[in-house]
Amino acid sequence: MQTTLLVEDAAFFEKAIVKKLHEVGRHQIMVARSYEEAENCLNLPIGEPDLALVDLTLPDAPDGEIVDLCEKWNIPTIVFTSRFDPKTRSKFLEKGVIDYVLKDSPGSLNYVADLIRKLAQNPKIGILILDDSAVERDVISKIVGKHLYKIYQASSTDEALQTLKDYKDIKLVLADYFMPDKDGFAFLKAVRRVHDPEKVGVIGMSSYANPDNRVRFLKYGAADFVDKNCPPEELLLRVSQNLDYIYRIEELNNMAMRDSLTGLYNRRYLLEQATKAIATWPVSEGRAHWLALLDLDSFKAINDSLGHDFGDAVLISFARHMMKLAKEDDIVSRLGGDEFCIVFRDKEEAEVVDGLQNLLDNVLASPVRHDGEEHLMKTSVGVAPLESGRFGDALKTADHRLYAAKRSGRGQLVSSD
Fold first, then answer.
1. One domain for residues 30 and 43
2. Locate the GGDEF domain: which residues (predicted)?
3. Could you report the per-residue pLDDT of 77-91, keeping only the tens digit for each?
């Protein structure tokens, strides 16, 4: 479990910070109100904290000695203090603290909470540093690495393009403008032929103040442009803001492709995105891809007699059964109403049929309970092979077999004519 060391001698700020830490999911908090208490906390046999949030001015350590203690224990540290002194601030940033935040407004606490939330996610995010100078790469990597991102390096355009191809977790590239052979413009053009700005962001960098280069870089598809000599905090803020943009677009796209009730993919995703992917799927000998259409029996009667809230509970419960059946590479979607679809990737027919039959049995044996009411579910299933990626043909065949299942008494599975 993530553990936070909070060192704060003001009771008001302590309560406010603890509340924010809980909001961002950090529930195990070691609270100390002095240097001595912090030292005692670190010596407890309950595991070392993975993050420290500290004030600089403590009753028994008025000059920021608490940062040295955290450094001694190798704990990533955020300074949250009322002490505004440029020299002090520079001193502790040079020591390697993650950030130096002033307690000068309610927004500062929100900033700290957002930073802590991001620090938990950042190790999964790849950032590529492209620069022909090894020294420059290392300096920039050290700055960006303070926020715990996964750092990759490349010394040339070709190496950077190959790294992007090899590592799909890279969301942002910091690219030097001046490089021998292929410069930053060449890299940017090549990236934009393969990656949309909403998928991989590029921040241009240069040590030379040339407005024309900055404008050209932005016109070619860069998300931002920074001076290499900018303060480290500015670089980190620009990185964070550009990643926020990418993830907001991803979130919006995900919302557009997901069913809001069940969380499954929706019809739009299935017909627009999944079909393209399915057409590229290889198939093993003796196996095939399969499409199953599922329709809840008598769902309209459930809605009419028990209400839409109960109907929603039925749909959510059924979606969970489907997700338990599906494997990682399979696609589960809600087409609308009480109609669902599963696309099985590279399976033997017996495996698909047995899995779906188990689904029918499990659904029938799992009544839905909602507001004191209980109702048994039944579903009918039609199955068809996806031959040569012909999604439309498989959909028609599965639909035909679905209604054959309903005509045969409901709660049935039909996989052949």
1. yes
2. 287-417
3. 999 999 888 899 889
The answer to whether 93 and 146 have CB atoms below 8 angstroms apart is no
Q: Are 290 and 348 in contact (CB under 8 A)?
A: no
pTM: 0.73
Say if residue 47 is in the same domain as residue 85: yes
Phi, psi angles (nearest 5°) of residue 193: -75, -20
Per the structure, how many domains does the chain have? 3
One-letter amino acid at 250 equals E
The token pair at 284 is 């093993």
Task: Answer yes or no: do 163 and 190 share one domain.
Answer: yes
What the block records as the tokens of 326 is 């599906």
Distance CA 156, CA 137 (A): 12
Q: What is the pLDDT at residue 1? A: 61
214 and 232, same domain (yes or no)? yes
Could you read off the pLDDT of 52-102 as tens digits, one per residue?
A: 999 999 999 999 999 999 999 999 999 999 988 889 988 999 888 999 999
- Both 400 and 271 in one domain: the answer is yes
42 & 145 share domain: no
From residue 186, give the alpha-carbon distance in Å to each of 173, 226, 227, 371: 14, 18, 19, 62
Backbone angles phi, psi at 260, to 5 degrees: -65, -25
Q: Is residue 14 located within the same domain as residue 91?
A: yes
DSSP characters for 250-290?
HHHHHHHHB-TTT-SEEHHHIIIIIHHHHTT----TT-EEE
Residue 407, classified by CB atoms within 10 Å of its CB into exposed (0-12), middle (13-18) or buried (19+), is exposed
Give the range of the structural domain holding residue 242, as residue numbers without chain letter. 125-257
Query: What's the pLDDT tens digit per position in 11-21?
Result: 999 999 999 99
